[in-house]
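Subject: design request, 311 residues
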């Protein structure tokens, strides 16, 4: 299946609008009709991370991609504890876009942590769950935050007041380079628009500082390891997707989660980093579509069952 690029400029089937969710103006992109599928992006990202997979998934489903509050074009997140409130926000989003009050949740990184949290808290809201290189499965300060801050805090706007006059275009280019180096296994093979779309939301000192501050709050709340501890109580059809070469969240977290969630499936993308929806969009959509249809991809060696993990 060829990857289909979602046009950020809009087309006849794309619906862009703002929803008030949990009292917060939330940027939303919708496409397609059928059973609802909600896409939740990762830390610092936006709906643009789903640019290649929205059209393909929308052929058979009603796809809703939303900017989490504090990211993209949504209003800032003002509530704390932040992750508890994100779960509340996501539950209300489901209620607004899913006629029967249930939806499939697909979350990448931080979005995966939010999706998993919702599924654990209110399982009747979630029909199926897809976790893509999911954050929040370890305890203590996560690797992704140590790597990200090591890069972010070296950027001129955060390194000292004398450098705060750096032109926005230059800062955006630097942020895009940092993002690409951390997220992709092969940055040169991914359209540069993907990195530019990410960096466009972090092109001023104030926006970068906001990103760092928000990250500190998120990491502090994830440090308990609660999501992994509670994972055995999850009884929703679950697909775990992971890039084998993910630098930010090790594939060992995906393996451990698969062991703890009864009946879950694990699909590993070879030669791929933290965002398979951008590096392997066609393969990503094929795996997700089979799962949404209730099929196991038994013909693929990359689908790993609980009884195969020790092999």
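Subject: RE: design request

Done. Sequence follows.
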């Amino acid at each position: 299946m060829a990857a289909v690029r979602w046009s950020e400029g809009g087309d006849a089937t794309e619906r862009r609008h703002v929803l008030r969710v949990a009292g917060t103006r939330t940027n939303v992109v919708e496409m397609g009709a059928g059973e609802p599928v909600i896409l939740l992006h990762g830390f610092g990202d936006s709906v643009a991370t789903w640019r290649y997979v929205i059209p393909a998934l929308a052929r058979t489903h009603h796809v809703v991609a939303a900017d989490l509050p504090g990211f993209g074009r949504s209003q800032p997140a003002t509530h704390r504890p932040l992750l508890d409130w994100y779960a509340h926000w996501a539950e209300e989003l489901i209620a607004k876009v899913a006629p029967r009050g249930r939806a499939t949740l697909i979350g990448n990184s931080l979005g995966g942590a939010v999706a998993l949290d919702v599924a654990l808290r209110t399982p009747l809201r979630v029909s199926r769950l897809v976790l893509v290189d999911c954050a929040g499965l370890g305890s203590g300060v996560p690797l992704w935050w140590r790597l990200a801050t090591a890069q972010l805090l070296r950027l001129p706007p955060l390194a000292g007041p004398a450098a705060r006059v750096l032109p926005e275009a230059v800062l955006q280019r630097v942020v895009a380079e940092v993002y690409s180096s951390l997220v992709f296994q092969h940055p040169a093979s991914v359209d540069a628009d993907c990195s530019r779309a990410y960096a466009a939301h972090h092109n001023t000192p104030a926006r970068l500082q906001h990103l760092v501050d928000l990250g500190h709050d998120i990491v502090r709340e994830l440090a308990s390891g609660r999501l992994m501890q509670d994972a055995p109580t999850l009884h929703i059809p679950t697909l775990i997707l992971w890039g084998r070469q993910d630098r930010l969240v090790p594939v060992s977290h995906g393996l451990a989660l698969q062991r703890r969630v009864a009946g879950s499936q694990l699909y590993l993308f070879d030669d791929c980093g933290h965002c398979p929806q951008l590096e392997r969009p066609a393969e990503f959509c094929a795996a997700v579509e089979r799962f949404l249809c209730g099929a196991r991809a038994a013909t693929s060696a990359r689908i790993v069952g609980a009884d195969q993990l020790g092999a």
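Residues 8-12, 297-301, 305-311 have pLDDT under 50 and may be disordered.
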